[in-house]
Write a structure and sequence with these properties.
Length: 248
């Protein structure tokens, strides 16, 4: 289906996505649409790789920045690609770059979002089999990142993307999943709430939930990402709960 406006799925049922959610594992109408992917490239220099948590948070913000950009809506130059992407499965692929690879990626149309130590560039959606050659050459593997020290506790008054304590993911996979969670939260907010989040610079935290808290989070009516199972983890796995204060 192609709509003039960005489609917003029905509110997720407690503990799961909506019937036609782009994150459902089961085949649905979205699988019949042409498939697009949102490319994200994280800069990983050998001498100074970013911290894992900062990379995850920066990737989530990059997705939000792309969604909110004036070029992505209305008659903007990226709006058609964004609509086509959101009409199908909401796929995101994270690749890594360094040195000349990063400079070539920066030369393509997109947006670079910078965290404390991380740089992530997000690009308009491309067909699943139609990546620009500069990005197609980049590696998906090798995004194993660490936190030099445990991240501080998340601000309970702010948005938190809670990762499952039951699933082990590479940094690249976790970055994509955090982006999914941020996008689900964005869709559930009103226009006024979105504007407030954007104007504040999209503050958010990405943390791994405790095993004790995870059942409460997944059953609390918040947006939940269930992975389609294309890579790394089993289809239907619950990976992220988007805990935005406006949705509690």
């Amino acid at each position: 289906m192609n709509n003039d406006a960005t489609p917003v799925p029905d509110s997720p049922a407690p503990g799961g996505p909506a019937a036609d959610s782009p994150f459902r594992a089961e085949p649905g109408d979205r699988d019949l649409a042409p498939q697009f992917v949102l490319p994200l490239v994280v800069r990983i220099e050998r001498a100074a790789p970013p911290a894992r948590t900062d990379a995850l948070e920066t990737a989530a913000r990059a997705v939000l920045v792309m969604l909110a950009d004036e070029r992505s809506v209305g008659e903007g130059e990226w709006a058609r690609a964004m609509r086509d992407w959101q009409d199908a499965r909401i796929r995101k692929v994270v690749r890594r770059a360094r040195g000349a690879e990063w400079r070539r990626a920066e030369a393509l149309p997109g947006i670079t979002v910078t965290g404390k130590s991380a740089e992530v560039r997000v690009f308009p959606p491309v067909p699943l089999d139609g990546w620009p050659k500069e990005l197609a050459k980049l590696q998906v593997s090798g995004t194993e990142l660490d936190d030099p020290e445990p991240p501080a506790d998340a601000d309970p008054a702010g948005p938190v993307l809670w990762l499952s304590p039951e699933i082990t993911m590479s940094a690249g996979k976790a970055m994509a999943q955090a982006g999914h969670g941020a996008q689900l939260a964005w869709w559930e907010l009103t226009g006024e709430q979105r504007a407030a989040w954007r104007d504040a610079g999209f503050p958010l935290a990405v943390r791994t939930a405790s095993a004790a808290d995870w059942p409460r989070l997944t059953a609390g009516g918040l947006p939940v990402v269930r992975d389609a199972g294309y890579t790394e983890i089993a289809p239907g796995s619950c990976t992220v709960v988007a805990d935005h204060p406006e949705l509690r």
